[in-house]
């Protein structure tokens, strides 16, 4: 099939629901239902905030995010040489605040936008699975697995986290049949989160596994060129955000390194089965030499994110494209349903900060 890696049977995907309009309605309904079930199973802890929120992991960045919304370019000038400033990572995640500033959004509206991004992320992911031949029960189950993983609660449990946007860019880059869409994803993705760049080599090989060709490769390189040029120019001009972030992480890495496996487990829990299956299927589809490059690029991304981000549960969501490859196999549809049910029942948690802190994520019914 043209718009998804041909790693299952090589046969064209069937259309589980006849009629484009009806397919869209079914997909929208399944997206909403999956999100509702996920929120009932793992409910974000509601924290009300006014001018200055409680300093918890859910709300700690709200002051910085609202300042960035008011002045996306110069908001952090007062902190550029402060080694204790913990929000250096926001310095170059400019796409959301620039758009919010241009639209004159209020802070409350702006900080609620990640939920809109989650709708697009879940819906787009289910669209690609639907086009691969997964039926409605499997689509709903896949949506629940997504909704009970860090792919979803990375943006839903913390106020103002826009992880869903870089993950959406990765999904479009990996699976859209349009080279132009892949280029646009590369043009916008890095400005949402640098993790897009960390995953780009592996995701490029994932796309190559079903659409080999240099046309989109060149476009993708040009797409990230603007971001890379801006970062290098700022670094040459004395931008200290990267230096301060590295200095901060080097001091605390030893405190949370041993908890990385537990944090990663909570990122997908039983969804790891499909992440592993997706990686194996992509490896099988590539020539052996490129398969080795895929593994090396993934290992490099994991090493980098392990050092650069202390919220290990949230950051491991960057492997999400491989989950979709594994879940896209129609023969796994029954497994999707059972694993989604079990993932709802399994204990979930979020590991954050350098201590680290394990925050249980429970249902509203608890």
- Which regions are unreliable across 5 or more consecutive residues at pLDDT < 50? 6-17
Shape: globular
Helix/strand/pairing category: mainly alpha
- What is the helix tally? 17
Radius of gyration, rounded? Answer: 20 Å
Give the strand order of the largest sheet, numbering strands 1, 2, ... along the chain.
1-2
Tell me the count of domains.
Answer: 1
How would you characterize the overall build of this protein?
It is a single chain. The chain is an all-alpha fold. The protein has one domain. It has helices at residues 20-41, 62-70, 95-102, 107-131, 136-147, 150-156, 163-175, 179-188, 195-208, 214-236, 241-256, 260-268, 272-285, 288-308, 312-315, 320-327, 333-345, and strands at residues 348-352, 357-361. β1 and β2 (357-361) form a beta hairpin. α1 (20-41) crosses α4, α4 packs antiparallel against α5 (136-147) and α8 (179-188) runs parallel beside α10 (214-236). The longest helix is centred in the first third of the chain and has 25 residues, at 107-131. It is globular, with a radius of gyration of 20 Å. The N and C termini lie far apart (44 Å).
